[in-house]
Every structure is written in C-alpha cells, then in structure tokens.
C-alpha cells in the first residue's frame, strides 16, 4: 500500500501563508473592530466636547542679570554719582523670586483669583472672568476668615434690581436688592450688577460663585507657572501659564511681572531712602547750629561796632589763609566721621549712608560691601527665615564689616585729631605774629570760622540730598518687558488630533488584544494546518460544519459543500487504496475522543460509496457506545454484540439493509460488560471475512483510541485507517495521540480527516461547481471589494 503524502501540499516553512491565516483570523472579526473604533471615536468626541480648552499664555522679560549686563547700560552716565552700586542679582535667583510664594500671594490678592465665576451649561459649567460675569461681589469678611473659605453659591438675577442666592445645599433666599449688605454664613457681602439690560422672569440668568481656599489658589498657579531662559547666553526669561480662561492667564502674568518690578524698585530704593532720612535729619541740626553761629556774629559786630574786619586784618591774616583752609577741611571730616559713627552705633545692622566724602578709601569700600550684603540679606529674608544658613552667613559677614567700619572710623577720627592738633599748633605760632590785631578781630575770626564750617556742612548735605533724589528717581526695575502677555486663540489642550488618533488606535487595539488573548488561550484544533503542523500523515480532506439536523447529508442531487467534501473524500480514499489486496476493502474509522464525528463520517462515507453502485457494508464496532442505529433511526433485534456472544448466529442473521441509502448495516444495540474480550474471541474476524467476500467496501466505525483499546486490538484487520479530528473541538495537546499512532505505525495506512471546519472563517476548501446550495462557502467581505 502507498503511504501518500501528496495530501499535504502546504509547506511548513511558508511564512506568508501563516501570516495570511493570522490576518484572516482578525479580519473575520471585522465587525468588532468597526464597533470598537466607533465607540472609541464617540468617546473621544464626547471627551473633547465637554473638556474645557486649555490656553497657554506667555510673556518675555529681560532680567537685570549681573552675569550678562542687564538693562542698566543706558544709566551708566550717572555712575559718577554712585547710582549703579552692584544691585544686580543672578538669573537663577530672579527665577526663584518670580516663583516665590510671597509674590504669588500679592498677585492672587490683587486679582482676587480665589473667587471664581461659572455659568452652568447643559452638561458642564464654564468659567467666566471679570467683565464676562454679570455681577461683581464684594466680600467684607476678614482676610484671615475669607482666605480659608471653601464654598459655592449661586446668584440668580430675577430683575434689573433684584436677585436671589442659592447656597450649596440648594436653599434659596428671598429677593435682595443690588448693592445692599447681605449677611451670609461666609460673612457679609454685597452684589452689584455689571451688565445692563432687562432680565425677564423666564430667563433668570444665573452665575455660580465658587470660593476656593487662598492657599490652594496660590499653590495652583505657582505650580502652573513655567519659567525658562530663552537661551543660555542671554538674560531673557519666558514666563508661561496654561489656564482654561486666556484673559485670566494674561492678567495673572502681567500682574506678576508688575509686582516683581515693584518689589525690585522698592529694594533698590531702600538704601536711598535711609540715606535721604539721615541727610534730612543732619540738615535740620546743622541749620540750627548755623543759625546760632550767624546770630552770634551779628551780635558781636553790633556790640563792638565793627564793619569790615577783613580789610583791616587782611594783611595780618594773609599768611594764615592756608592754615585756615586746612583747618576747615580737617574739622569738616572730623564732624562727618562723628556723625557716621553715631549713626552706626544707633542703627546696627541697617544700611549706612554712603558717598559722604569721609576720605578714607577702606571705610568707603567696606561701607559699599556692607550695604550690598544688607540688601541681599533683606531680599532673601522675604522668602526665608533667620535660621537659613545663607542668612546666618550673611549676618556674620555684615557684623564683621560693621566692626571693620567702626575700627576704620575710629582710626580716621584719631588721625584727624592728631592732624588738627598739629594745625592748631601752627595756627598759634602764626597768631603770635599778629598779636597787635585787636582782640575783637580774633574773637570775630573764631566766630566766622565756626560759621564757615557749619555753612560748608550745610551746603554739602544739600548737594547729597539732591544726588540721592536723582538716585531714587532713576532707579530702574529688574525686569524690562519685551513682550506683554499674549496667547493664541488655538487651545493647546486637549490635543484633538492626538486624542482622535489615540481613540482610533485604542478602538483597534482593544478588539485586537481581546482576540489575541483569546487566541493565546485557545487550545483547540481549527483547521488542517493545525493537524499538518503536528502530524505528517496524509490528510484526506476537510468536512465542513453543517447546520442540518439530518445525519445523512449526501444524495444524488445534493451539490452542497458537505456533499462535495465527501465525494472528494471518496476519491482520495480510492487513491489511498491503490495497490491494496484484491477483494473488499476494509476501512476503519476512529478518532481520539468521543464526539469528533466518526460515526457521522462513517455513515456518509458509506452513502457516498454506495452512490457509485458499490456494495457497501457499514459495521458499528464501537460496541461500548453504539450510535449508528440511532443516527439511521433503525430498530433491530440482533446486532454485532449478539453475534460475538452467540456462536450459533450467522453473519447474515445480523445484517440489516438500509434501502434509503443503498448499503447494508451491522449495528450493536447491546452494550456488553466485556467488550474487549468479545472483540478478541475471533468472531469479529468472521464478520470482516464475510464482508470482504461479499462487499466492495467494509466501513468499520470503531471506538476512540485514547479512551479504550478496542480499536488497537482490531487495527491489523484494516486496509486503511481514517483518523477523524474535529475542528473547534479537539484539544491540540491531544494530537500527540494520532502522531504517536502514525509514527509507530500502530494503525495501518493511516490518513487524517478534519471534520467540522468553519468555512466562514476561511478554514478548509470550497466545494461545489455550478449550482450551489445555501451552505456553500461565501467569499469574505474584504475579498468582494477586489472581485471583478
């Protein structure tokens, strides 16, 4: 006999066919993909429809950064007045200041961002900002109470002059007049209209007012604020803020920059303000002393009846002019040194007046460094505390510089006194040369000298006051606004294209994932490829699944796919039996487990063989679970079991003729207690011998090989074994049984038959030619798109 492998035309290494099978497996569920995409796109549409748009607003500023020059170049002309004294901060520090909590607090208070107005739509509520709201609400509760409120209420405008309030619990108050003071659970307040017009009763415009804890609002916008340098080489910062209301974000950014500049100007003016206060105090004192000296001179001249003492004493004092000039300078410096020393002792840790002309370079340098450190400490203290290591370090440096300044002033004072004593000694020597000058001249000269000292100090303080006023007038902000806050009308979120694309992919991936997981968990045999991948035995064909309740599906006029598959099976069997011994051919039909359709195959195979005018005998050898009689709806008294048990019976006594299908039948209506022993007693060989002698084909329906040993005991009597595997029923792991049977040749001339294939999924092959019945395979929908 031939072991024909021609029935395995598929190459195991053909990856394109496997890919196509996988594709067809997913395309079979195309309706689920369409449904998934439709549901996902509908969900994306609803999400976009009811999700508030987000707008990004940005502003760019040029920061006064000491590392890159900042914006102070246009003020360099005032450098000789000491106006550009190292007040620039690093870019990183300015970024932290812009995001500081104290600055955000002032912005939130200025714009009242903790009070939000909303208009209720059909599904969601949309936020209104400032002028868009129909009313304005003034709250009179203390900040300590108001800033902790977390509540909401509704203002319903009932007419041009009245409104009602509805709290969060749904309780509605009586009508109130606009502008009147109202007492509520969250403090006193008044409501004033912003929009003019008549409000009809049926319209009843409503606005929802939501009060959010102040701390939450500040943290929200601090976290939302994005600050980034435009480039590494510049001091330009871009401030960005994303919010559902674009106008609100614009006002927040503009107000933030304005508050930041105000803080910077106040910090820079702090030293000038302290200097101005010191100068004004000294001017008052010096003015009083100068007035006193001038009155003394006037009284002295009046009492002594003196007129032009300068002409009279000109020659006498000519030699002393240089001494007096030097004496004047030393007294001026000594006075200034005493004033500054007294100020430092009374104002420890505060800013020291600078550029007063003391004349000591070390004192002036230490004073400038001291003021810079005080300003830096005060700025950091706005967002920190005294225990900050940086503050502690700065305080130490400030204390050290203060001590150095005091020591320097003391040394300067001592030096000035020594110089003054020396000059006075010279003056006394020159005075002896003018002893003939009247006593009045000498007394008046002392009064005049005192007057000149006080006058010089007074004029000097007036000059410094004007210089300090110029400093305050030209103090530049730390940030120059390059672009005011602006934003596009195109929302940055939600991103519609991305969401629709994600929804499309999700609509495809979810069905794909479900089908993929089901395929991973699926362990059933589905088509002949699954059989071919495990077993190298010939495959006779595929029997399509039929929905017909009739067990005999083959007839002369039937051209259905099932009938055609049995005709093809008949042809392949004849080919497989080529070269068999003369006489009737015995064809055994078995399966792995019960329920795979071997009895169905046996009946219809006998039928299709009988259609060719062949004599066919169908034997039901599965005496443990006989089904053939039930399928053929035949009733008989004696069958195969009786023959095996009763030696007096002849084969002809148990043969029944089935006229409707033109073949003979030996059934088994009695289930014996010892089926294996009965099949081994030699009586079954007599049945087969009679069948081979009187029939062209003997079809034997045997028991499943996995469950019982009956089939293996009789296997040597067969000319051919048809091993039935039912698609979508048999576990793939059980294919090891037919594989072992074929490899070990325990079933002679074994060939596989796939039963119950699903033609709608593309499994199996098409049958029929010419006229088709209703169960003929239809083309998949995607193939009809390309058919001509």
In short:
The protein is α/β, with parallel strands linked by helices.
Features:
about 800 residues, 24 helices, 21 strands, disordered N terminus, disordered C terminus
What do you see in this structure?
The structure is a single chain. The chain is rod-shaped. The chain has 788 residues and is of the alpha/beta class. The strands form four sheets. The chain has an eight-stranded mixed β-sheet, sandwiched between helices. Strands 3-2-10-5-6-7 form a six-stranded antiparallel β-sheet, with no helix packed on it. The chain has a four-stranded antiparallel β-sheet with strand order 11-12-1-13. Helix 2 runs antiparallel to helix 14, helix 4 packs across helix 7 (246-304) and helix 10 crosses helix 13 (439-473). The longest helix has 59 residues, at 246-304. The chain is built from 24 helices and 21 strands. Residues 1-16, 67-89, 197-202, 763-778 and 781-788 have low confidence and may be disordered.
